[in-house]
Amino acid sequence: MSTPMAESPKRSRRPRRRFDDDFKAQAVRLVLDEGKSVGAVARDLDLTETALREWVHRARANRTHGRTGLTTAEREELAQLRKENRQLRLEREILKNLSRTGMPCLLWHQKLQTRLSSLVPWEQWPPAYWCLRAR
C-alpha cells in the first residue's frame, strides 16, 4: 500500500515590486560604504538578497569604470547590439530565402524593404530583389 505524501504548505509568491534609483543607491551605499553585509541590509530593508547583490554588483562595475564587470552604459550598448544582430540575422535569412525561390515577390517584407533602401539605392540591388522596392 502506498502512503499519501504529506502535503507541504505552498508559499505564495511575493508580488513583484519596483524600486526607484534613489532607494537602490541608498541600499548599495549601506553595503559598499558602511560595510554592512548584503544579508543584513536585505533583511533590514525587506529585500531579497539576490536583488540587492545584483544592485551591488552593478554599482561596483560603475564605480570601477568597468574593471569589475559591465557598466550600465556597456550593458545598454550590449543589449542594443544583440537586438541589432538578431534583426540582421533575420534579414539575412529572408534574403537567402528570396534568392532560393523562383518568385521572390511573394515574400514582400516592409521592414526589409525599408532597411535595404536605406543601405543602397534600389537600382543597385540584384535583379531578384527589385520587387521589394517601394511601389
Description:
- The chain has 135 residues and is an all-alpha fold.
- Among the domains are: 21-69, no CATH class; 88-132, no CATH class.
- The protein contains 5 helices and no strands.
- It has helices at residues 21-32, 38-45, 49-63, 72-100, 110-119.
- The longest helix is centred in the middle third of the chain and has 29 residues, at 72-100.
- It starts with 20 loop residues before the first helix and ends in a 16-residue tail after the last helix.
The overall pLDDT, averaged over residues, is 77
| Helix residue percentage | 40-55%
The Cα radius of gyration reads 26 Å
- Beta percentage is under 5%
Specify the number of helices: 5
Kindly name the structural category: mainly alpha
Helix-strand sequence: HHHHH
How many β-strand runs?
0
Uncertain regions: pLDDT < 50 for 5+ in a row?
Answer: 102-108
Q: Span from first to last CA?
A: 75 Å
Gross morphology is elongated
The main pleated sheet reads as: none
How would the blueprint of this fold be written?
Elements: H1 21-32, H2 38-45, H3 49-63, H4 72-100, H5 110-119
Main traits of this protein?
135 residues, mainly alpha, 55% helix, elongated
